[in-house]
Design a protein that fits this description.
The protein is of the alpha/beta class and about 750 residues long. It has 23 helices and 23 strands. The strands form 4 sheets. The chain has a 10-stranded mixed sheet, sandwiched between helices. β16 and β17 form a beta hairpin. α10 packs across α11. Bound molecules: 6-O-phosphono-alpha-D-glucopyranose. The site of 6-O-phosphono-alpha-D-glucopyranose has 12 residues, from α8. 6-O-phosphono-alpha-D-glucopyranose (G6P) binds next to α8.
């Protein structure tokens, strides 16, 4: 109904407009025609048969005769009145009803341009006058006798018939236009209905499995894909609930047709190391947030993880190509180890990645070092990994997950070799602002390399904004702020926040002994009194983790709150890391010195407030410590996310224990029930430690329950699932756009 009302409204408005323009045109045209016609009539009346008689009586000044002649002229049904004016512009004769408003003097000036000029320069004049009785047409026609101008005759003609005729024509016009418009609309509606019906029946035939007309094929294929996608999305929404490995697997099947994913990362989850003098080989799980998060995803998705074969026994435990199936005993995916020379490792890993990019990306006042030799190795190793990746993929449009700052150039290198690949790059560390990024001599190359990715993920929107600002500042490209994307060379890179997380439930927590047993074992190992309050810290020994500030906060706690002296012990699990770099060696010494000083100040008998456990600890040990502790202090000076904070929460099924968390971690934005502190502010941090140690059980439970609910919901399967679904959408869109482009070029007859 509404459609019809709108249609009629449009029709009426259109008709009105057309009629208005039409009548304007009619008026202009007919007026011009009629006026011309009247002027001709007047000229004929004066210069025709009556002319000789007029000249004759005029030259003899016979006014009465002239009046008779004028009266004869007005016998024409449209000539209302006539007058004769002398060459001096005086009235000579006039018919009875000649209007007084028209006078010889005024008209004569138009006919006789100047006094005393020759008869040849006299001209006829015509115009329209409005009199009380209506509009009239006035013509003034000179009467010439040889080379002498006798004067002029004025003829007044009725114009009312012109108006009558115009009105009639307007009516006809309106009627004709109306009829035409209705007829055209009816024909259009009938034609549209018929072709729509035809089109719909073609579509129905096709959707029911029939053969469509060939020109409908591409549209129908696109419609089907769209329907498939919408149905898929609806189903996934309906599924809702928690993200689990099964749901991630289903997502992969539904959206990416079960395609295997290929991960490119420097670190891998299983490192084979020769241990002891006997040369036995042990498997190590490295202390790496990246590995912690990604390994469960690979278990769920299967595929291949390409990484540096850094373990001393990695070669022995891999096949000829450096491949090994993992996890041991429940093999579900493949690790492909890439061998690096010492020189490559020095330049790419220690040099450019960890002495250059690592301090560049963390605001911890450590100076980045950029050496051109390291950059050369970084480029070469990125190239090497990209080549290995191309050997590992089975199709030309694989799904590739490039991980972290070690491989900023890889997305572009992969794109060059596999233009149709879906490359997702995730940056596990903070992204510096553009000013800081500008310090790197190879900033442009890094940004261009990263833009080879289809999706670029960071932990927070803040990191995304920093990246986009750097692109804006250093590259020629278009920023699509609405889509949060960078467009370069006609390609889009979506820049999105995907806060990383843990598997849920955490495997290591699930397999750990009950809390009481863990606590008893840890207390035994550390030789602690049963009433000791225990704090833990778990880190790689890295200057970004704020381990020194953490120990200083413990010292400040004992200074300010003597009640904790002899009662509070802090166990720091510190995995040595990147020890080939001087800055890390210095940190080792500093930590040792600070711990020794605090122990000397506050230690007594067996009691040592700081227990430094400086070695690599396997996850079961780490989780035992989490469960044994009263508090966990994460004091990073700058951290993309920090999964230790989430691991502590995951470990505490008993809903006890307090998390004290640095405000400079990505995790602080999510785990808001932790005690959030500025690790540089030792008074604030020590107060938070004191508050944590004095917190009631109820409050501990409330806070821990809320944080556990958050990590359970926003787990790593969701992290991976969201990225993969976004990638699938992008892939689909690119396929459709590509197809549309093909249709257009086929239709345009281009090759
Ligand atoms: C950070 C990085 C990871 C890295 C981890 C351990 O979490 O984002 O890429 O694996 O540190 O560092 P490492 O140098 O031992 O791999």
């Amino acid at each position: 109904m509404r459609r019809w009302v709108s249609f009629l409204l449009v029709l009426v408005i259109g008709l009105g407009l057309v009629t208005w323009v039409g009548s304007l045109l009619v008026h202009r045209t007919t007026s011009a025609w009629f006026e011309k016609d009247l002027s001709l009539r007047a000229a004929l009346a004066v210069r025709g048969a009556a002319h000789q008689a007029l000249v004759f009586h005029w030259s003899k000044d016979q006014a009465q005769e002239l009046q008779r002649l004028l009266a004869e002229i007005t016998h024409d049904e449209r000539i209302m009145a006539a007058a004769a004016c002398t060459s001096e512009l005086k009235p000579l004769a006039r018919t009875k009803d000649f209007p007084d408003q028209i006078d010889c003097q005024a008209l004569g000036l138009n006919v006789r341009p100047a006094a005393d000029n020759p008869a040849s320069s006299w001209t006829s004049w015509k115009g329209v006058e409005t009199l009380p009785g209506g509009r009239v047409h006035v013509s003034a026609i000179p009467v010439i006798d040889g080379d002498r101008a006798l004067g002029f005759v004025v003829l007044v003609q009725d114009l009312s018939f012109v108006e009558r005729r115009e009105a009639k024509m307007r009516q006809y016009l309106l009627f004709a236009f109306g009829f035409l418009a209705l007829a055209a609309s009816a024909v259009t509606i009938i034609a549209a209905r018929l072709s729509w019906r035809g089109w719909m029946s073609e579509l129905r035939t096709f959707l029911r499995g029939g053969a469509p007309r060939p020109e409908f094929q591409p549209i129908l294929r696109d419609v089907r894909e769209l329907v498939d996608r919408i149905v898929g999305e609806r189903e996934s929404d309906r599924e809702g609930g928690a993200w689990t490995p099964q749901r991630l697997k289903q997502t992969l099947n539904r959206y990416l047709h079960g395609e295997r994913v290929v991960v490119l990362a420097n670190r891998k989850p299983y490192i084979h190391e020769k241990s002891g003098n006997g040369g036995e080989i042990a498997v190590h799980h490295p202390a790496s947030g990246l590995v912690t998060a990604l390994e469960p995803v690979m278990r769920a998705c299967s595929g291949t993880w390409i990484a540096h074969g850094s373990g001393s026994a990695d070669r022995e435990r891999s096949d000829r190509l450096g491949r090994i199936r993992v996890p041991p005993g429940e093999e579900s995916y493949l690790i492909r180890r890439v061998w690096l020379t010492q020189e490559e490792e020095k330049g790419y890993y220690y040099g450019f990645s960890n002495e250059g990019l690592w301090p560049l990306c963390h605001t911890v006042h450590a100076r980045p070092v950029f050496r051109s030799e390291d950059w050369k190795q970084y480029k070469a190793v990125n190239q090497k990994f990209a080549e290995v990746l191309c050997q590992e993929v089975e199709q030309e449009d694989p799904i590739v997950l490039v991980q972290d700052y070690h491989f900023a150039l890889a997305p572009q290198l992969i794109r060059e070799r596999l233009p149709r690949a879906t490359v997702i790059m995730f940056w596990h560390i903070p992204c510096p602002n553009s000013q800081q990024f500008g310090i790197c001599p190879w900033r442009k190359e890094l940004l261009e390399g990263m833009l080879g990715a289809s999706i670029l993920g960071f932990h927070t929107q803040f990191d995304c904004n920093n990246f986009i600002d750097s692109v804006d500042r250093f590259l020629e490209s278009r920023i699509d702020r609405e889509q949060n994307a960078v467009v370069q060379h006609g390609r889009n890179t979506l820049v999105r926040p995907y806060p990383i997380s843990l598997e849920w439930p955490a495997r290591w927590a699930k397999n750990a002994p009950p809390v009481e047993q863990c606590r008893a074992k840890v207390f035994r190992e550390l030789n602690l009194e049963p009433d000791t309050l225990l704090g833990v810290g778990v880190d790689r020994l890295d200057y970004t983790k704020g381990v020194e500030e953490r120990l200083l906060a413990v010292e400040r706690l004992l200074e300010r709150f003597p009640v904790f002296r002899g009662r509070f012990a802090f166990a720091q699990l510190a995995a040595p890391s990147r020890t080939a770099i001087e800055r890390y060696r210095q940190l080792n010494q500093t930590i040792e010195r600070v711990a020794a000083r605090i122990n000397e100040r506050f230690g007594q008998g067996n009691y040592r407030p700081v227990i430094l456990l400086r070695s690599h600890h396997e996850p079961p040990t780490v989780f035992r410590y989490y469960r044994a502790a009263d508090l966990c202090y994460v004091s990073s000076l700058h951290d993309g996310m920090n999964l230790v904070a989430k691991e502590f929460v995951a470990a505490r099924e008993d809903e006890r224990g307090v998390l004290v968390l640095s405000q400079f971690t990505g995790a602080a934005r999510e785990l808001t029930e932790a005690l959030i502190v500025n690790p540089y502010d030792l008074d604030e941090a020590s107060s938070a430690l004191a508050a944590a140690l004095g917190m009631s059980i109820d409050e501990q439970c409330d806070r821990m329950r809320a944080m556990r609910a958050f990590v359970a919901e926003f787990n790593v399967y969701r992290w991976a699932g969201r990225m993969l679904v976004d990638a699938a959408r992008l892939r689909n869109r690119e396929r459709l756009t590509g197809r549309l482009r093909d249709h257009v070029s086929v239709a345009a007859g281009s090759p």
